[in-house]
Amino acid sequence: MVCIWFNFHCYSIAYIFCAKTAKSKKGKYIAICEGDDYWTDPYKLQKQVDYLEANPNVSCCATDFDQINKNGIFIKNPETYPNIVKLDHKEVMQSHWSPTQSCTIAFKKELLDPIPIFLYDKLIYCGDWALSCWFSTKGEVHILPDTTCTKRMNSGGVWSSKSNILNAYRLICFSCRMPRYFPRKYKQYFRQNLVRDMPIFLEQLIHLQNFKESSSYIFALIKIPIHISFIPSIAKTFLIIVMNTIRMRKFSLQ
Known about the structure:
Strands 1, 2, 3, 4, 5, 6, 7 and 8 form an eight-stranded mixed beta sheet that branches. The protein is α+β, with helices and mostly antiparallel strands. β4 and β5 form a beta hairpin. It has helices spanning about 10-25, 45-55, 90-95, 125-135, 165-175, 185-205, 210-225, 230-254, and strands spanning about 1-5, 30-35, 40, 60-70, 75, 85, 105-110, 140-150. It is globular. It contains eight helices and eight strands. The N and C termini lie far apart (about 65 Å).
């Protein structure tokens, strides 16, 4: 087992660091813990290694966790797992967010050798979700009901400290960029995510009061390399949002 602690502000850099560090270490599995999180179960690693050894079809084993919120208050995870959660690639890729947390996972070292190219993509901000998707193509992702960690919800975090529209834009980037790094059969899941998340982004964009900020997001969206098969879905979604907005404004003026 290779245990790696890091304190980076960028998930992708952190995972690249983990992969390169693990190559020089002995061990079959990797477990990660960010600098502001901590493990609470002394048997965490043993439980996960035992589970991975007993279930060779599982590529990544995660666990339940608690949280410390932005105000420093400890809270139990409201989404507890009464039983083992077993996720295949479809369930992982179509989540609204990563189904696992970095500080809870243990996975096969070989899955980061070679290092997945998408970790170098600066437009993929959801590094932990991207890795979960990657793991799900190599086997199932299972989440144990044991609470083994406490995750700190940092107010200066890469995700939690950003605006809703910026995070919505990042989800669009994720769905647009990920298909190029995965076999064709997985592309449909990212396209479905794009159709799901695009209305959220466009609605927030339309209601922005700052013209400069709106323009910057529009230009940023145009610059994202989008697969040609995604364009009809995006255009249809955009037209629906615009028409609904026009109808609502006409109604409010009556």
